[in-house]
């Protein structure tokens, strides 16, 4: 079953315009095979309980997305969907799968392109090369049914039992794989080997699936720097890397790129040249944050809620007060501290502009780029109370997905951040309660405003990513 949508478009001009189409990947069996000895190599902080993550957490995300983006798939069927013990509605290889054209499952797209014999042979050969498979296994995979082969590529297992290569558990964080910038797609260059296979799969999908046929010339791939193969060592900091969690489309002509643990200065530099050469945007702002596992990407530090409202970690947001020069320690302080946030804005053929702190940058985006007439407001992680600010940032209090302006998804465990939202005038509602109100008609996704939707998160939060990470928006309405 090939995903077909005659109305399909790629067009993202903001972080908050009403979401119409996105790519996701539901937790697959590979997540349930992450072992403690390899968890950190596979970029997981912990091992998760797969059935709980699916049934009690991620499934709510899919149901909610459908009510907002494709209500005909779910409206009137909620009780039936929730009573199905086998969860057939959520399984891409099942005949009862929701098969939405707006909430698009990556596994379905992969199975679609594997129907083509030439693509199947090429992709099998590519995967087997990076996973060091033997020739007989390669032949066996070529002869495997495309739907089953898609599951194998993602889970790393034959028949759900025999592991033939590592799982790719980070595929649930679909944003890292590519970012829609206006009507272009910028594909990533991952920093860690654990993400090489998922990046390969997404490249094949974007260049070979009929859904993206009209956008072939708008798919941008970041090149390596010249003679990159001469760099000493594999972990050299000059590696060209970029991940989608470090890229934000904040207004039609303004893109943010974070330089972080996962995105290098070289990666940002190559992306800017590519974007300017193709006239995709007019300005790009680099936000360099500390290279710490605490932060990982810029979308773990801040995300946008409304035209004039952002949620962020205050300890990284404000300008540091200068040390008094007469103090002895001021003479020995590191003037270019690696733990300091640095912000530089680049415009084509114009002089770069420096911002003192994140709050100044975000205020500029709200008030100048998006023409907000209201003063920019900040909602702080943990309500800016120590130690809850850093505790809740670790569990993605700042990593929110806007379904439309002012309506965002976040984890239910971040209590102090929830308090901060309430103090800022937002309604707060648990997802299961909201779904029932949508089903009964008491509330309507089209009219709901200024709401933080609380999502269950005991297992999902162990993976270190929120719903901003777990989404690849392809189409949003313009912010008027």
UniProtKB/TrEMBL annotation:
PANTHER family: ARGININE DEIMINASE. The lineage of its organism: Bacteria, Pseudomonadati, Bacteroidota, Sphingobacteriia, Sphingobacteriales. Keywords: Hydrolase, Transferase. Its EC number is 3.5.3.6. This is arginine deiminase. SUPFAM superfamilies: Pentein. GO terms for molecular function: arginine deiminase activity; transferase activity. Pathway: Amino-acid degradation; L-arginine degradation via ADI pathway; carbamoyl phosphate from L-arginine: step 1/2. It comes from the Bacteria. GO terms for biological process: L-arginine deiminase pathway.
């Amino acid at each position: 079953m090939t995903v077909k949508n005659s109305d399909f478009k790629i067009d993202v001009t903001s972080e908050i315009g009403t979401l119409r189409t996105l790519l996701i990947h539901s937790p697959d069996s590979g997540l349930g095979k992450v072992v403690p000895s390899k968890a950190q190599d596979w970029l997981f902080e912990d091992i998760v309980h797969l059935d709980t993550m699916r049934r009690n957490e991620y499934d709510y995300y899919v149901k909610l997305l459908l009510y907002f983006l494709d209500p005909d798939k779910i409206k009137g069927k909620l009780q039936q969907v929730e009573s199905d013990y086998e969860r057939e509605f959520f399984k891409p290889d099942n005949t009862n799968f929701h098969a939405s054209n707006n909430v698009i499952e990556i596994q379905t797209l992969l199975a679609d392109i594997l129907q083509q014999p030439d693509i199947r042979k090429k992709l099998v050969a590519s995967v087997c090369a990076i996973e060091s498979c033997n020739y007989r296994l390669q032949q066996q995979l070529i002869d495997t049914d495309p739907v089953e082969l898609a599951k194998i590529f993602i889970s790393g297992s034959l028949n759900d039992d025999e592991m033939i290569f590592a799982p790719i558990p980070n595929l649930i964080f679909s944003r890292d794989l590519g970012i829609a910038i206006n009507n272009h797609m910028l594909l990533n260059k991952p920093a860690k080997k654990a993400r090489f296979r998922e990046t390969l799969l997404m490249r094949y999908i974007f260049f070979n699936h009929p859904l993206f046929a009209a956008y072939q010339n708008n798919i941008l791939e970041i090149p390596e720097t010249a003679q990159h193969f001469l760099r000493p060592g594999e972990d050299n900091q000059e590696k060209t890397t970029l991940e989608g969690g470090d890229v934000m489309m904040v207004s039609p002509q303004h893109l943010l790129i974070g330089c972080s643990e996962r995105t290098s200065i070289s990666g940002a530099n190559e992306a800017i040249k590519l974007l300017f050469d193709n006239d995709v945007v007019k300005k790009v702002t680099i936000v360099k944050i500390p290279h710490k596992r605490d932060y990982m990407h810029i979308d773990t530090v801040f995300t946008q809620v409304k035209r004039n409202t952002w949620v962020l970690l205050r300890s990284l947001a404000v300008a540091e007060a200068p040390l008094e020069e007469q103090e002895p320690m001021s003479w020995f302080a590191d003037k270019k501290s690696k733990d300091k946030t640095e912000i530089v804005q680049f415009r084509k053929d114009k002089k770069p502009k420096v911002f003192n702190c994140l709050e100044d940058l975000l205020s500029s985006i709200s008030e100048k780029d998006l023409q907000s007439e209201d003063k920019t407001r900040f909602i702080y992680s943990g309500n800016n109370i120590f130690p809850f600010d850093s505790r809740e940032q670790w569990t993605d209090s700042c990593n929110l997905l806007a379904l439309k302006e002012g309506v965002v998804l976040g984890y239910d465990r971040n209590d102090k951040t929830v308090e901060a939202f309430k103090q800022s005038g937002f309604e707060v509602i648990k997802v299961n309660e909201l779904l029932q109100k949508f089903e009964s008609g008491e509330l309507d996704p089209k009219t709901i405003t200024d709401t933080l939707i609380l999502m269950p998160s005991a297992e999902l939060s162990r993976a270190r990513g929120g719903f901003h990470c777990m989404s690849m928006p392809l189409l949003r309405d313009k912010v008027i």
